[in-house]
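User: Let's play a game. I give you a shape written as tokens, and you guess the letters that built it. Ready? Here's round one.
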């Protein structure tokens, strides 16, 4: 057994497992149906990553990503984040070897995207791997290639791949580029799932906060009458009370 996997299984907690089963909606018909938990809290998983990531080669991470246990898959994803971030520093941004390694991590991540099969797994990995990759040089292709990568995720029938395509824009907005958020917020504007409504609104809010509130207002002026109310509430969360009321009082079609 992979050492970090062994460490996590030793931390199994039945009481916490029952809490997580309910929190992540694992009952039949719910979005997390079939997901299995050890009952380990995120800080415990992060501690395992901190201790083991340096000595865990990329070749061993797929074993973690394909594990039945949610927390072990999270451990594998956070290890990918750990490796990617160390190759994405300002000093290494244009380094040829670092570019190839980042592309390798990105490819591994995408090839195992369906293993990130709950919202926390997506949210803790997509911005720092996929989103950061969008903003860095890549040997795989130019911006058009990167758009195609996200378009393919967005068009997937897998909810979690779809969520990746919008949540990854948290990082692009953090780095000052609003275009990715605006594009995929529009792509997913009429998505039927509440998890996507929340993700779209959250990313729009972050884009407004980090890049431009005027761009957020422009998006709302164009789409407010067709936006799900949940997405709208999330998007305007950082506005003052008067402006929030203005947007919420605009009737939905």
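Assistant: Ready! My guess for every position:
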């Amino acid at each position: 057994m992979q050492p970090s996997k062994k460490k996590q299984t030793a931390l199994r907690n039945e009481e916490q497992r029952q809490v997580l089963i309910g929190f992540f909606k694992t009952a039949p018909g719910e979005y997390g149906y079939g997901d299995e938990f050890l009952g380990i809290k995120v800080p415990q998983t992060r501690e395992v990553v901190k201790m083991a990531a340096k000595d865990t080669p990329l070749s061993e991470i797929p074993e973690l990503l394909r594990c039945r246990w949610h927390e072990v898959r999270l451990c594998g994803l956070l290890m990918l984040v750990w490796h990617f971030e160390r190759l994405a520093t300002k000093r290494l941004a244009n380094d040829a070897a670092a570019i190839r390694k980042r592309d390798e991590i990105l490819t591994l991540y995408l090839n195992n995207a369906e293993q990130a099969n709950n919202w926390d797994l997506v949210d803790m990995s997509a911005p720092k791997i996929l989103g950061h990759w969008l903003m860095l040089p890549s040997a795989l292709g130019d911006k058009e290639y990167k758009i195609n990568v996200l378009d393919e995720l967005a068009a997937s029938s897998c909810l979690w791949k779809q969520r990746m395509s919008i949540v990854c824009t948290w990082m692009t907005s953090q780095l000052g580029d609003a275009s990715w958020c605006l594009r995929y917020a529009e792509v997913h504007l009429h998505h039927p799932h509440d998890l996507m409504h929340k993700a779209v609104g959250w990313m729009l809010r972050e884009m407004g906060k980090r890049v431009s509130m005027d761009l957020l207002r422009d998006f709302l002026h164009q789409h407010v009458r067709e936006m799900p109310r949940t997405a709208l509430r999330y998007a305007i969360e950082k506005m003052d009370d008067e402006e929030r009321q203005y947007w919420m009082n605009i009737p939905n079609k």
